[in-house]
Amino acid sequence: MDTLKAKYLTGIANAADESALEDIRLAALGKKGEISALMATLGKMDPDQRKVRGAALNVLKDEIDAALRAKKAALADAALDARLRAEWLDVTLPARPRRVGTIHPVSQVMEELTAIFADMGFAVAEGPQVESDWYNFDALNIPPEHPARQEHDTFFMHRAPGDNRPPHVLRTHTSPVQIRALQTLGTPLRVIAPGRVYRMDMDQTHTPMFHQVEGIAIDRDISMANLKWVLEEFCRAFFEVDSVELRFRASHFPFTEPSAEVDIRCSWEGGQLKIGQGDKWMEILGSGMMHPKVLAAAGVDPSQWQGFAFGMGIDRIAMLKYGIPDLRAFFESDLRWLRHYGFAALDMPDLAGGLSA
Ligand code: DAH
Q: Cβ distance 162 to 170 under 8 Å?
């Protein structure tokens, strides 16, 4: 029995896999196995001898059985270890960037300016792109005979034959949102309104559809000084420079009094535009104090409230900031252009994390 025990325990210890183990189990404990055969001889023994031999055989059988189980568990553990080693992966590695499209510079700039103005307490308002001529013109102090109507190169919608009401227009600027925001939100008010606008115009710097952002701040004592600070703060944050210099040039808009066009100091060196320094000026927006008639048209008492307004071309400041030469390419959906000038889809601009980083 000692010889048997040594043979099987050594065999078990050296078994390389489960099937080798199974062979050993069958050879020892199977129906035709060696231990089973010895068990079968017990019947022919006399009772005393049987008792001694039987007990010893049972101990041997249990020992082999236990060794088989232990080895089986050890093999399974080793197999799991090997698999875990083979399938190891470092979950702390940064994800591989997979570009699912890109963000268009116009969308990027809209996100950027929304973040900047939100930081200064401005909410975002919207209005329809198909607008009534009252909102687009009359309410903004541009009556039907006003020359500004011609300057806007307006697209008109069709009316049904016989319907003689003035036709709706594709809004020519975001200024009608001034009226809509005041009507729905009332005073005091601080909103910007980015969006699409339309004019019949097409050359290197004009497309029939383009983007503007309107801004208004209305309270009891808003002044041009507030306008100047807000615009300077915006330009510094937007162009990501330490200092900017703005020039306010007297101008005229029907919906503001006084009115000013705003230029930003810049330089052109070797075809490279630099914002904030140099001896050139670039016009970037129109602005002024909201005309009393505009406040009144929106149902606001101009003897109680006053505010500033500004309107800025989004495509234009996108071109300036990101050095994009031709406006028309913005809307041609050329994938090579989009991949070159686009932004990573999952990077949201915010003031703390960097606008365009
Ligand atoms: N609506 C003007 C345009 O499209 C831009 C503008 C100028 C908007 C002055 C304003 C403003 O709010 O105060 O040309």
A: no
- Assigned domain for 263 exists: yes
Give backbone dihedrals phi and psi of 213, rounded to 5 degrees, phi first.
-130, 130
Q: Which segments of the chain does DSSP mark as H helices, in order?
A: 2-14, 18-29, 34-40, 47-86, 105-119, 133-136, 148-151, 176-185, 224-239, 292-297, 314-322, 335-341
For a substitution probing ligand 1, which of 140, 175, 205, 226 has the most ligand atoms within 8 Å of its CB?
Answer: 175
Please give the distance, rounded to the nearest whole angstrom, from the Cα atom of residue 268 to the centre of ligand 1: 27
Q: How far is the CA of 311 from the centre of ligand 1 (A)?
A: 4
Measure 19 CA to ligand 1 centroid, in angstroms. Answer: 85
- pTM for this entry: 0.73
Q: How far is the CA of 325 from the centre of ligand 1 (A)?
A: 24
- Assess if residue 353 is contained within a domain: no
Q: Is the CB of 173 under 6 A from ligand 1?
A: yes
For ligand 1, whether the C-beta of 214 sits within 6 Å is yes
CA distance 294 to 87: 69
Distance CA 136, CA 24 (A): 94
Instruction: Please indicate, yes or no, if residue 357 is contained in any of the structural domains.
Output: no
Domain that holds residue 172: 102-344
CA of 259 to the centre of ligand 1 (A): 9
55 and 112 assigned to the same domain: no
Among protein residues, the one whose CA lies closest to atom 2 of ligand 1: 311
Domain total of the chain: 2
- On whether residue 66 sits in a domain, the answer given is yes
Domain's final residue, options 62, 86, 110:
86
Q: pLDDT tens per residue, the chain (357 residues)?
A: 889 899 999 999 999 999 999 999 999 999 999 999 998 899 899 999 999 999 999 999 999 999 999 999 999 999 999 999 999 988 888 877 666 788 999 999 999 999 999 999 999 999 999 999 999 999 999 999 888 888 889 999 999 999 999 899 999 999 999 999 999 999 999 999 999 999 998 887 889 999 999 999 999 999 999 999 999 999 999 999 888 999 999 999 999 999 999 999 998 888 777 888 899 999 999 999 999 999 999 999 999 999 999 999 999 999 989 988 888 999 999 999 999 999 987 777 788 777 776
Q: Are residues 272 and 126 in the same domain?
A: yes
* Binding site membership of 288 for ligand 1 (Cβ less than 6 Å): yes
